[in-house]
Structures are given as structure tokens and as C-alpha cells.
Amino acid sequence: MKIYNSYTRKKEEFKPIEEGKVRMYACGPTVYNYFHIGNARTFMFFDVVKRYFEFIGYDVNYVQNLTDIDDKIIAQAIEEDVKASKVAEKYISAFNEDRAKLGIDTPTHQPKATKYIKEMIRFIKELVDNGFAYEQNGDVYFSVDSFKGYGSLSGRKVEDLIAGARVAENTAKKNPADFTLWKDAKPGEPEWGSPWGKGRPGWHTECVVMSKDLLGVPFDIHGGGTDLLFPHHENENAQAKALYHSELAKVWMHVGFLNIDGEKMSKSLKNFFLAREVLEKYDSETVRFYFLSKHYRSPIDYNAEILAESEKAVANFYDALSMIDIKEVRALTVDDSMSKYEEEFNAAMQDDFNTAKAIAVLFDLSKSVKNFSVEESDRKMAASLLLKLGGSLGFFQNPEEKLKSGESSEELVKLLIKCRNAFKKEKMWQYSDMIRDELKGLGIVLMDTPDGTKWTRK
RNA sequence: GGCGACAUCGCCAAGUGGUAAGGCUAAGGUCUGCAAAAUCUUCAUCCCCGGUUCGAAUCCGGGUGUCGCCUCCA
Q1: ipTM given for this complex
Q2: How far is the CA of A138 from the C1' of B43 (A)?
Q3: Quick one: which residue's CA is nearest to B13's C1'?
Q4: What pLDDT band is residue A458 in, cutting at 50, 70 and 90?
Q5: Which single residue has its CA nearest the C1' atom of nucleotide B3?
Q6: Terminal-to-terminal C-alpha distance of chain A
Q7: Are A101 and A62 in contact (CB under 8 A)?
């Protein structure tokens, strides 16, 4: 298994710290709003990472945090005129709803930042005591000059950061690149007692403290969106290195951004799509296919045409699955005749999660399933492997449910097909075609196959 | 200004030294009463210029273009 490590900027052979186990952490949402389609890409990608590691036999401990205390949450609380904790609660359950709708598994742990306040205070105090951080008017900052190596993860130099035109002015900081660990509470804001007075922790500490608690440091994989590389992950790693004398994680993975019609998604451009809005228009598997059809590190464009293509591609798989008995096929043991496909699929996935290439193998299998000139036992075998390999990417989580409309369960359609076949037998084409056309108008498509007439909803 | 990514058929997208996967679309054939589905066939020399090499989409240099991070952000 090779994975591109943002830290070394190279593809590296993945070696778990502990044999047979993967300990991974991916930055989750700040729960101040519903998450958008770009967030969904990252969440879904790490879901695939988790699924695939499990598929090849690893025991995966996957932690995804919930940032439930943050400036943005406070701002949202003021806007909704409720307490900050209410805002967090509301969007945590919304997060989990949307996550489930996208077919993303529940992570092993979903720690909330507010459950770790004490540990974070202790951690920050230790940084202060060891000279890596300092207090200023109730705020605590991490001092980037206090130890060597700040910037090593993201490949930046402290001098360059200062030279950067837009480093915020903050006279309280010793170095403009210093970042906040603890923030003094203004009246009315959520607050916790600390050695520096009442306040709340900064964003960069929670991941260090929670990952240490739930995974141990260092752990195998740390991931997030590409924008998190700097400053968030850099800052996390700096804290870990300062106190734990260790990198926080061995491998750092970053998912590329999603653009809307070629432009960056932003509220001001009004091209902002929530995941739940997208799911009203498209099936979750369409979205999954769309994400996985391009390599995770590349930027991806969101537009109606691409989603329409993805929709057709997924339908292609279900066309194949509708031609076989899923229960029967699922019980099959895949034999060596299919090993070529399996090897190809795994080779693609194990080359830095080349999902686009892996999907090509799924199409090959789909083609075999649909090909009536292929031996029936081989068609079933191909279908079995299609379910299995597709499943490792999170596809086909409930194919029976999805294909229900395609089975002859609805008596009226069955009856009409019977009538049509009777007309066909008498060569009364105008009547048989009328039935087919009328049904098509209702979104029901008939197909005459060697096994009889089948139908699906489009 | 600093750091980085990308540029492959009409569209999407793999490929990182050995002669261009796959999907969507399109055209034609087979099958079909006609369709649909299936199936077969056809459709690119890889942004430009130079270099390295027996050989480059793939490596190096220089352009051009697009994008991201450096500020909360997946």
C-alpha cells in the first residue's frame, strides 16, 4: 500500500505502527452550520480509506472530531438568538443525519472538543510551563520561535510567514505567526475557568489532545482538507513535537478542493451548496461516484453535467445487478477466474487510493454481468465480485432496496406486461407498443430479455 | 512577495521512460416485429518551445494558461 504523504511530499510505502492496525484521525466539522458538498468530499474520502483498510483486513480505529466550541459557533448563536451549546447540538445531529444519508459510516469515535476542556487546559499549561507558550491579557499564544522546526510540515519558513502581506496585526503576540491556544472570554460568551482566567480553548489544541487520548501519539494517518495543511495541521504538529517530542502522525493526507463551475465555493458568490441540498437532487451513490471518479488530491469541479454523467454511470452498475439474483450471488465464493480483476482493483487502490482506476475495473465486471454471451456462472461470479469490490468503496450498501422497483413485486405492472405479451403473440404491435409507451411515460421502462420482460424505473 | 498544484479525445478521467485505461456522448453493424438492453466496430500522440534518451504524455530547462495555500475555511 502506497500513500502520498504531504509531509514528505512523496508516495511512501504504508507501514502501520502496530501490525494489522490502522489508527487514523480526520478533522471533522465545526458545527456552526450544515456542512457543504466540499466538506462531503473530504468526509466521504476518509470513509473510503477506512472501508478499504478494513476490506484488506486491517483493524481500523478512526477518530473524527466534532468542534463544538469556536468563534463561528458563537457568531451563529447570536444570529439564531440561542445559546452556543444549542447551536452545536443542533448541527451535530444534522451532521450525523447528512453523513448517514451520504452512506458514510459512523467513525469509531466522534469526540467533542467541549468534553476535553480540562485536558486541553492541562496541555496548554504544560506548554506554558515548558516555555513554548505565553500568556498575554488572558490569551495564551504558542510561540513559533520557541522551538526549531515550525513550518516543517507545510514547508514554510517563519520569516516567509511574517513577510506575507496579510498576517494579522496583533500587538499582543511576540511573533505575528504565533497562534492562539486559549482565548479570553468576552461577557456573555461560553467560558471555562483556567489558570489564565475564564475563556475557551483555541481550535488547534483539540485535535492534539483528543488524538493522543483516543489513538496515542504518534498515530498512523492524519487527514483533512488541503487547506488544513497550513496553519491547522502545522500548528497541531508543532504542539505535539514541543511536548511529546514526536510527530503527531506518520502520514498526512490532504483532500483537494471542490469548486463550483470552476470557481471557489463561497457564500458571497452564492455558489454555496449544502450536502443536504445536493442530496435532494442526486442519489448518494451518484455523489459517491462523482467524488471517486477523480483522484482525491486533485481539485474537482461541481456542475450539473458531471453529476448527470455520474448518475448514468451508477445506473449502469444497477442495470447489471438487476439481471442477477443478488442474494444468490452474494453467497458465492469468488474463484480464481476473477483474480485478474481483483488484482487490478487492489493494485489501483493500493497506489495512493487511485479510485478512478479502480472504478474502471468495476465497469469491466459490470460489462461481464450484462453480457449474455458470457457463461452464466461467470456472470454471477462477476456480479459477486462487483458487489464485493464496489462495497469496499462504499457502493451497493443496499442493492436489494434500490432494485426493488425492478422486481415483479408490483402486480399492476406485472399484469400490463402480461397483456402486452399476449398482444405481441398475436402480432398486434400497435397495442403492445401502446402499453410500452404509456408505461414509459410513467417512468417505467420495459426490456425484453432472453429471460422474459424486465422493467425498471428511470 | 513566499510556498505549492495542475494542463491528456466533444465532456469527465487514468496513465510518471517503452509506444495513449475507463465512463459519458457520437457514428455504423448484429440482435429485436419495432424498441430498449446487450454486443461488435470506429473516434486523441498528450498546452507551446528547447534539451536528455535508442525511446518521453511521462525526466530536465524555459514559456503560456488555470487553480490553491499563506486570514476563519474541508
Answers
A1: 0.92
A2: 69
A3: A294
A4: low
A5: A156
A6: 39
A7: no
